[in-house]
């Protein structure tokens, strides 16, 4: 009799415990998971703004406000709206592009555009734009050739190859492929209203996606190319204007700290200026430029996108980061055009 009563009490307690647990889980789900249809991302929330104005973010334990993270919350403008600025505030109108740079060197010598590359980029789910870029093939022939190889449209054999061609054959027991922007290239970093940084974050990941695999065993990444012919070429012009195509002085693959693995060597392959950036003259060189007004408008759009959280406020001046919303390269093409010498 007593044993049956004890069992009944234990059963009741377990039911109460399960009900309480389910209630807490339901409440947590309701609070934490926003509606996908109504979710709007924001850069800086009202609490952060208020504590920054009052100077008491730490006292109020508003860490986002104290650190300056540009993410989270409901007060940010919708990042898919072209009027949404990098600081999360809504502007009166979408940004308009600056003037197409004249193809003229700092000494006043015309710069002939011999080759062009096109990068089609999707912003979010609905917006698509194109960057049309011309290369100064006469002034920077080696850099131009390297860039054209990097933009090869042959998805399997085109690209930069630093290893032996024999490694492309299956008989050596390894998997590898030339590194090409069409295979895994994307906009990696945005320096708001300053410059865009493009590259391939991981050769192995890009190769796996190309093969439709989750993982690739025995993959050998392409090492940094020989820099002797590239490093000898001077910059065609200074980084004085928006819309200039810039690569490291030693060429593609040398844009990082030098400590990256071969797999990540091309993460920062080339940059496009969105402003006058004289600091880039120290270790980079200009080999081309944006060639039309529509591309300059799209460049300004990309340079104005909100970025993911950084350490702004902790490291002075750091406000760069990957784009907050999904940005993906959807198509790449290239062509030689020796007859083109003026901007369109």
Overview of this structure, please?
This protein is of the alpha+beta class and 344 residues long. 23% of the residues lie in helices and 17% in strands. The chain has seven helices and eight strands. It has helices spanning 2-32, 46-54, 63-67, 141-150, 203-210, 228-231, 293-303; strands at residues 115-123, 127-135, 185-191, 195-200, 244-248, 270-273, 284-290, 327-336. It has an eight-stranded antiparallel beta sheet with strand order 3-4-6-5-7-2-1-8. A hairpin with a 3-residue loop joins strand 1 and strand 2. Mean pLDDT is 81; it is low at 21-44 and 339-344.
Annotate the secondary structure layout:
Elements: H1 2-32, H2 46-54, H3 63-67, E1 115-123, E2 127-135, H4 141-150, E3 185-191, E4 195-200, H5 203-210, H6 228-231, E5 244-248, E6 270-273, E7 284-290, H7 293-303, E8 327-336
Antiparallel strand pairs: 1-2, 1-8, 2-7, 3-4, 4-6, 5-6, 5-7
């Amino acid at each position: 009799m007593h044993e049956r009563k004890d069992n009944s009490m234990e059963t009741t307690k377990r039911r109460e415990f399960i009900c309480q647990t389910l209630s807490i889980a339901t409440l947590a789900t309701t609070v934490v998971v926003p509606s996908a249809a109504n979710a709007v991302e924001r850069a800086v929330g009202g609490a952060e703004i208020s504590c920054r104005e009052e100077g008491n973010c730490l006292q109020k334990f508003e860490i986002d406000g104290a650190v300056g993270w540009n993410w989270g919350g409901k007060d940010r403008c919708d990042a898919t709206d072209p009027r949404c600025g990098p600081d999360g505030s809504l502007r009166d109108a979408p940004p308009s592009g600056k003037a197409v740079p004249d193809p003229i060197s700092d000494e006043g010598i015309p710069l002939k555009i011999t080759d062009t590359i096109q990068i089609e980029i999707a912003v979010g789910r609905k917006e698509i734009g194109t960057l049309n870029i011309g290369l100064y093939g006469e002034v920077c022939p080696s850099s131009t050739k390297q860039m054209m190889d990097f933009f090869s449209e042959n998805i399997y054999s085109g690209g930069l190859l630093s290893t032996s061609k024999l490694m492309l054959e299956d008989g050596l027991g390894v998997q590898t492929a030339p590194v090409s922007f069409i295979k895994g290239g994307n906009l990696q970093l945005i320096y708001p209203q300053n410059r865009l940084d493009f590259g391939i974050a991981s050769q192995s990941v890009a190769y796996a996606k190309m093969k439709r695999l989750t993982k690739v065993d025995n993959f050998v990444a392409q090492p940094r190319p020989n820099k002797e012919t590239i490093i000898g070429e001077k910059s065609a012009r200074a980084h004085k204007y928006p819309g200039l195509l810039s690569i490291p002085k030693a060429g593609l693959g040398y844009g990082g700290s030098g400590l990256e693995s071969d797999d990540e060597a091309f993460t920062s392959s080339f940059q496009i200026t969105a402003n006058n950036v004289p600091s880039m003259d120290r270790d980079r060189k200009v080999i081309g430029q944006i060639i039309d007004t529509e591309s300059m408008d799209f460049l300004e759009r990309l340079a104005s996108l909100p970025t993911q959280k950084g350490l702004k406020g902790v490291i002075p001046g750091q406000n760069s980061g990957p784009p907050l919303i999904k940005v993906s390269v959807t198509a790449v093409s290239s062509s030689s055009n020796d007859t083109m010498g003026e901007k369109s």
